[in-house]
Amino acid sequence: MDKIVAIARKETTVNLKSPVSYILMCLAIIVFNIFFFIIIDENREATLRDMFTLMEFLFVFIIPLLTMKTVAHENETGTMEFLKTTPTTNTAIVAGKYLGVVIYFTTMLALTFPYYVIIEVFANPDRMAIFAGYFGIWLEGLFFLAIGVMTSVWTKSQVLAAMSSYILILALYFAKVGTKYLQGVPHDILSFLSVMGHSESFFQGLLTSSDIMYFISGTLFCLTIARLSTENRIWK
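Above: the chain's sequence. Below: its structure in C-alpha cell form.
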C-alpha cells in the first residue's frame, strides 16, 4: 500500500508542476462555467441534470488527455524498466498511476460543486438528484480513467494511447445509438455495454445496484487488463 501511495504522490506532484495540467483544468472549468449559466438561463430549473450530461460528454474528450502519459511516458523513457527492477509490484505501479489521475479528476470535478451551492442559495433543488448525479459522473470518470491507463500501458506513444482510449470510450458512449438497429441478444449486449444507458439513472436521481456495479466492474476489468499488460507488453 505504501508503494501505491508513493507512486500516486509522485503522479500528483508531476501534475502540480505541469503547466499543461493547470491549463487543461482551467479550460475545462471555464467551459463548464459558461454552459452552466447558459443552461440555467435557458431551462430556468433548479437542476443540474443537463449539466451532468454536458460534463459526461466533455469528459469523453478530456480524460484521454489526462491518462495518455501515465504509463506510456514511462515506457518511452525506459523508466518503466527501472520501476520493474525495484521492489515495486506491477499491481502497485498500475494502482499508483491510476490513483494519481483519480486525484486530479476528482479535484476537477470538485471545482464544479459551487454549481450546487448557487442553485441551493437561489432555489430549492432536489438534493438527492444532484448528489446522485455527482456520484454517477464520478463513477463514470473512474471507468474512463481505467480505460485510459489500460491503453497507456499498451504503447510507448502518448498520442497512440490517447487515440486508443478515445476509440474505446467513444464506442461505449455511443453504443446506445446502435441499439435501434439491432434486435435480440445483440441488442441486449449493446444496451448493457452502453455507458449512457447506465449514467442516465444517476442524473435522474436514481441509484441502482446494476448501474453501480457496471462502472465498478468495468473499472476493475480495465485495471486488471492493465496489470496483466505490464508483464506482456504489446508495444514490445
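The CA atoms of residues 8 and 100 lie 4 Å apart.
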